[in-house]
Please model this.
Amino acid sequence: MASRVIPVEPFDLVIFGGTGDLAQRKILPSLFRRFIEGQMPPEARIIGAARSALDDRGYREMVAEAVRAHVSPHRCTEKNLAAFLKTIFYVPVDARGETGWEALKARMRPGVVQAFYFSVGPGLFGDLAQRLKSHAIAGETARIVVEKPFGHDLASARALNATLAAHFREQYIYRIDHYLGKETVQNLMALRFGNMLFEPLWNAQYVDHVQITVAETVGVGGRGSYYDHAGAMRDMVQNHLMQLLCLTAMEPPSKFDPDAVRDEKLKVIRALKHVELPEIVRGQYLAGPDTPSYREDVDNPDSTTESYIALKLEIANWRWNGTPFYLRTGKRLKARLSEIVIQFKEPPHSIFDSPPGQGANELSIRLQPDEGMDLKVTIKEPGPGGMRLIDVPLDMTFAEALGEEVADAPDAYERLIMDVIRGNQTLFMRGDEVEAAWAWTDPIIAEWEARDQRPLGYEPGSTGPEEAAILMHRDGRRWRELKT
Ligand code: NAP
Model:
């Protein structure tokens, strides 16, 4: 099948924090890949901006190194790289001072799309937004892209929204949640709303429960000081898992339009019931033979922050009343895996004398490591021997039919950055969604803090605390195996 890459309009993209980890590991390699695919036009310009005293040449060397390190060698040829580097520029800018802003202004071109990626700590968002306007650098339709964490609680998220809103209108603010840029997340919407088959079954009558898992094998690494003030609830559940939950549970929007989709997601968040503490399991990884404990990693021997959380959620609306959504996420677990599993109910009556559980279809939507979807269906075991049934996975990745397009699908950052340039906010969080998610999260955290609840220790390389399995067993269910 022929690839259909449609080039975006010429643009000036300023990456504040262009020398930082995110820019080097994700943003610049993603732009390179879009460049060699022909989606980023050669007239586009990427302008790195940070305090480091670099010139265009020095920054190009840094970018070349980042691209070589993060793009596979067969795509990162020296010819491609040399062409890409012609689009790269650098301006030393201090977000907190007046240095560099006029030089940045001089680099911007009239008549092209303007985008400003705030790849810096959230403490600088206000300074950047204000100076982009006070120096008349950002035009009326300039877009800004902001990274997580978007606030620490409802009050700080509101303050951040208000700061950005003082300088930019909501339609130009792109709050990134890279999970939304995953191919399979969009496929979830295509599956639900582009087919007749699934939507009639997508409700409490036919769905037994939903599981959403984001498991990591790594520990907190170098992010210890940030993470210990956040924990799994703030770092993962409030944003990534919440977004996956919304797309799974939302009503069909009237059209695939940014506000129509986000209105429906917002309704899901607002319909979430408060989760009581017995429905939550919080854990902290212990030391392994070769790995430090969470407390050692964050250098806080008394830390009560969770590196693992499992919880049972209910959505108070007609579609989902009585269908639990089980969410779990954690670090230093047995496998690296992100997936959504829709567990359908068993047929009401088996004419085949099937064992319990057979015929309960299971749709799994895997975000990583290998993006794809499969549907467990029950069929007759082929061959003689009577009517024996087996469960088999129906691979819905369609690699054969779609060939290279599946293998070469852009990664989340590539898609999202191109969406910013195209001016499409569908896969970005709106301010009211973020606030609603904090409004749901805050009282839960407040409750465990008020009771001084301590997380349970769990072994590194395990599936988390045993109590998380018990949370499911109590309801006669179990987690899907954590395996890749
Ligand atoms: P980082 O490696 O610490 O980089 C921070 C960048 O900000 C550097 O380029 C730094 O360059 C620049 N900077 C700091 N103070 C500045 C100032 N006053 N004026 C101008 N530039 C300044 O951080 P990061 O990991 O790239 O993260 C950037 C943002 O993305 C953070 O909000 C983070 O939470 C978020 N995020 C990161 C990741 C990730 O994987 N890294 C993932 C999700 C979200 P100079 O020192 O040269 O000024």
Q: What stands out?
A: The domain at 11-147 is CATH 3.40.50.720 (Rossmann fold).
